[in-house]
Amino acid sequence: MNRFVLRIVLGVCLILASAFAAWGWLRPYDWHPDPAARGKIEGVQVVRDHSHFWLTVRITILPGQQHDLQKPVRLLLGDGRTLQPGDTTLGGENATGITDIWFKFWLNENEISTPLSLQMNDGTLIIKKTQALPVLRADGEKYFTTSSW
């Protein structure tokens, strides 16, 4: 009888752990991205570079939408200032057009410690909601899959 109970307990624990892992893997970066932005954030990589940070934002263009290359893209800081990307990488194929975009920004500690948003096309996407320095791994980088960091 004890083995039967142990198997049930282990089975329930396995199911709960699998459900938690699936939720963490499949949840969106932001539950309600602005449709006017024509894209959604898939994730954000932060890499410490001495006293500054490289912030790389990965955007996936929504199905049936196109990114307007003529409109400026700006990072909106918590104090109202805006920054232009230091680098932009476009991804996709000739048949599908641009499907992925990576915007890279160079920020100091004060700038990355504020809430951050990305102004793109005619909308705004939330990158970071908190007012704190990001907690990075020992190697000085981390990939965030949610805006609460």
Q: What is the count of structural domains?
A: 1
Report the radius of gyration as a whole number of Å. 19 Å
How much β-strand is present in the residues?
A: 35-45%
CATH topology: Immunoglobulin-like
**Overall spatial form:** globular
> Number of helix segments?
2
The CATH architecture assignment turns out to be Sandwich
* Helix amount: 10-25%
Question: Could you describe the largest sheet, including whether it forms a barrel?
Answer: 5 strands, antiparallel
The H/E string reads HEEEEEEHEEE
Spatial order of strands in the largest sheet: 5-6-2-1-9
CATH class category? Mainly Beta
Number of strands: 9
Average of the residue pLDDT scores: 91
Structural class comes to alpha+beta
CATH superfamily: Immunoglobulins
What is the terminal-to-terminal distance? 46 Å
Q: Which consecutive residue ranges, at least 5 long each, have pLDDT under 50?
A: none
Comma- or semicolon-separated keywords:
149 residues; 4-stranded antiparallel beta sheet; alpha+beta; globular; 9 strands
